[in-house]
Design brief:
With 416 residues, the protein is of the alpha/beta class. 37% of the residues lie in helices and 15% in strands. The protein has 18 helices and 13 strands. The chain has an eight-stranded mixed beta sheet, sandwiched between helices. A five-stranded parallel beta sheet has the order 9-13-12-10-11. Helix 6 runs parallel beside helix 7 and helix 6 crosses helix 12. The longest helix has 18 residues. The two termini are 23 Å apart. The structure holds zinc ion. The site of zinc ion has 8 residues, from helix 10.
Length: 416
């Protein structure tokens, strides 16, 4: 969110009171309404009775839901509530793109998966839960990472795309694929206690690139694995996305087109920023330069998800550290995580959070051999760089951080 606030300071002209986007969303809705209706079975009529008695939904709306084909990118934090509620609401076809395996750390927020699903692939787990909620839903499984090579083919078969991605490269890819194929992109993103939602890429409306022309520099915006996320938050934001999706399908209400909804769960405040289409937008502007999908990993500098940095001189593996400790070598272990992380698990190291390192560097002895670690190796790499600049010559970065130590040296150590 820090990045987004920076953006709003720098690119304020993207925001105004223009309502063009709403007009074009209604065009899209009209197109969907042209589809010929089929019929609901007796069981379906009973199942959807609370919808059918709403004049804004009724039989016509429920049939639109039944005919709708919605693509969820990701069956994670955002994808879980989106898929669960769209299935319950009677969306006829749900496509899900995910290549991941259910992990124990997912269950705090990815409510479509259960404890028994740990180790299974997310697609199978999600499809099974959906079938349990509503067997009338056809689930189309795409067990792949969404890439420039497959995105257009996958997106083309659906009416609406719901972006539940967790990294910038895929988010730009989803945006561009939606703009190129003319599919509305129901956007959501989350971090710590804050979230955003909007509807992009409708015919005349702004797209994600109108809001964020450039990705943030690599490493500036931490991932949820690094920065954490309140487990309930993706539920909150995902249900805003599900609501917007249903409204687009029904053609009712005022969609979040041309508006960015900001959610602050700690203050429990919802703010709204008006967004205007940028005429110079490379994707949806007057003279678009994005006429085909590009290399989004390269565009975003590196990947979006947290991965350990490549090995460099001064790196130490968890196995090497274990050997050196066992041999009785005099190593000074410096832990650059936060105190609340130290409480979860630690190697008995000296704790100086990365942000405090410049002011507390005097606590360290330049004559000692120092091994720096964090959770996964990213922050400690920065600390090693800093210490080397300060004249520390014998500093190592513990590759993969304390999580790698837990994986490879001490399985009894808690991972987080
Ligand atoms: Zn745009």
């Amino acid at each position: 969110m820090v990045w987004s606030i920076l953006f709003f300071v720098g690119f304020g002209d993207a925001l105004n009171r223009d309502a063009d986007g709403i007009v074009q969303a209604r065009c899209f809705i009209a197109t969907m309404a042209d589809k010929t209706a089929s019929a609901l079975s007796k069981d379906e009529i009973l199942r959807y009775s609370r919808h059918l008695i709403l004049p804004e939904v009724g039989m016509e709306g429920q049939l639109k839901l039944k005919q709708a084909k919605v693509l969820c990118i990701g069956a994670g934090g955002l994808g879980s509530p989106v898929a669960l509620y769209l299935a319950a609401a009677g969306a006829g076809t749900l496509g899900i793109v995910d290549f991941d395996i259910v992990d124990l750390t997912n269950l705090q927020r990815q409510v479509i998966h259960s404890t028994a699903d740990v180790g299974r692939n997310k697609l199978d787990s999600a499809a099974e839960t959906i079938a349990g909620i509503n067997p009338n839903v056809e689930v189309r499984k795409f067990a792949t990472r969404l890439t420039s090579a497959n995105a257009l083919d996958i997106v083309r078969d659906f009416d609406i795309v719901v972006d539940g991605t967790d990294n910038f490269a895929t988010r730009y890819l989803v945006n561009d694929a939606c703009v190129l194929t003319g599919k509305p992109n129901v956007y959501g993103s989350i971090f710590r206690f804050e979230g955003q939602a909007s509807v992009f890429a409708t015919r005349q409306g702004p797209c994600y690139r109108c809001l964020y022309p450039e990705p943030p520099p690599p490493g500036v915006v931490p991932s949820c694995a690094e920065g954490g996320v309140l487990g309930i938050l993706p539920g909150l934001v995902g249900l805003i996305q599900a609501t917007e999706t249903v409204k687009l399908i029904l053609g009712t209400g005022e969609p979040l087109v041309g508006r960015l909804l900001l959610v602050d769960a700690l203050a429990m405040r919802f703010r709204e920023l008006k967004l205007k289409k940028n005429p110079d937008c490379p994707a949806c502007g007057t003279h678009p330069t994005v006429t085909e999908l590009i290399d989004y990993e390269q565009f975003c500098g590196i990947r979006g998800q947290e991965t350990a940095p490549a090995a460099t001189i001064g790196d130490m593996t968890p196995e090497e550290l274990k050997q050196r400790k066992d041999a009785g070598d005099d190593l000074f272990v410096l832990d650059v995580r936060e105190p609340h992380e130290y409480e979860i698990c630690n190697l008995g190291g000296h704790l100086i959070p990365l942000k405090d390192l410049p002011s507390r560097v005097g606590e360290l002895d330049k004559s000692k051999e120092i091994v720096v670690h964090c959770k996964m190796g990213g922050r400690s790499a920065k600390a090693v760089d800093f210490l080397q600049q300060q004249g520390f010559s014998r500093v190592h970065n513990l590759v993969g951080g304390i999580n790698a130590w837990a994986d490879r040296v001490d399985p009894s150590m808690p991972k987080y």
